[in-house]
Amino acid sequence: MRLADFDYAEHGAYFVTICTRNRLPLFGAISGDALRANAAGKAIEHWWAELPHKFPRVEIDEFVVMPNHVHGLLFINGADAAVAEREAHLGEGGHAGPPLQVLEAPIPRVLQWFKTMTTNAYFAGVRDDGWSAVDGKLWQRGYYDHIVRRDEALNDIRRYIIDNPRKWSEDEHNPAVRS
Question: Rounded CA gap, 116 and 87, in Å?
Answer without folding.
Answer: 31
